[in-house]
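Progress report, Aim 2. The chain analyzed during this reporting quarter is listed below.
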Amino acid sequence: MSDPLARLRDMQTADLPVHGGRTLAYVYDSGLPDVDRIGREAVAAYAGSNGLDPTAFPSLLRMENDLVGFTADLLDAPPEAVGTVTSGGTESCLLAVQGARDSRPDVERPRMVVPSTVHAAFLKAAHYFGVEAVVVPVGPDFRADAAAMIAAIDEAPDRTVLVVVSAPSYAHGVVDPVPPVAAAAAERGIRCHVDGCIGGWVLPYAARIGRVVPPWTFAVEGVTSISVDTHKYAYAPKGTSVLLHRTPAHRRPQYFAHADWPGYTMLNSTIQSTKSGGPLAGAWAVVQSLGDAGYEQLTRDVFEAVDRIVAGVDAIPELSLVATPDSTLVALVTDATCDAFTICDEMATREWYVQPQMSYDGQPPNVHLSVSAATLAHVDEFLTALTESVAAAVAAGPVGVDPGVAAFIETLDPATLSDDDFDGLLAASGLVGGGEGLSLPERMAEVNAMLDLASPAMREALLVAFLDRLARPNR
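Predicted structure tokens for the chain:
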């Protein structure tokens, strides 16, 4: 008989490391083994519990209320504030949009106003829930343009059900000007949601240790809801997030109930019905273990790492910051001597995972870092690897795409392509190879450079086709 746990461990060797502070995307590492152990054991203890019915599992209700209460205190929420634990930031964002839409049943064609830097989860929500997304360009500092946001609201205030701002935006790590946008929304009777999914747990502690943080919490009048992920900088196991509402009335449209069928009366606070109690228990246990003092120290650690990385980047002439970070996210752009995609490849050869971001609206591709507390112990190694990677990228020269291929890519219209066309494009781009399964090249710079030339619609269609080919059953 095969040992499935041994097989799991063997398969996991191909994955990115989730500990050690060297993976600067997707995972958030406290660097504290005991905290990780507590989280894992709590998840295992509650893996079979079902959050569908809080009366059947009252311990889950207790943990959820504890976690929401801790978060409410952290974010300056008023005494009447309420909240819900969700499966992650995307579900929190979806529910913020759905709740805003359903709070206005009188609006036939609801719309929401968002900056161009808003997380894609809100565009996903717009797609799912039939809400028109009015996307407003940001200012030169990559922050939401408050005047432009307000003007967009006023184009159709009777149909606008939600305005969204970020603290911080994922792509650039800067906090939007929440007070003027929230005030304008409140004056017009419109909800204002702050997406604090990635920064919401670390920014309050940053303010406590004396760092300058733009105002964004419930202390800002007009903010009606905030999302904050506990599986990011609360360093809890995947996947939990908290969606807070200023009042119970703001949360009520989020709920779904259905009694007009032969079965039990369904009552849901989130998009999920059945949901494991494991992630909630893991988040609760980690938050209880660390407490305010633990999070304050982890915040000191992560910002020391950020500051040292920023200072180190300043000493590399080919690199510069896209924007001075307000939080723990750092985006780096190159000069004309090298390119971001090659740097990402070079970092991977040195066992550092950093994330490439494509060009957008005239801005070039960049290297994105989500810095964790665990990175602090390895900052010198990181900066050495980054310096070496930039030097290697300069030596190689900026990655290029054959002009004929570039011209061809620019003419492609995804609406006119067949499945066979997509198969050919995937093979030509290097995203899939011959034979069975996935065959990605070890270096992705040329692939990314070709993708970067494609229109957003073409890139979306190509990657959807890639995911479709990738997700096929093993038989």
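The CA atoms of residues 141 and 323 lie 7 Å apart. The longest strand covers residues 160-166. These observations will guide the mutagenesis work planned for the next reporting period.
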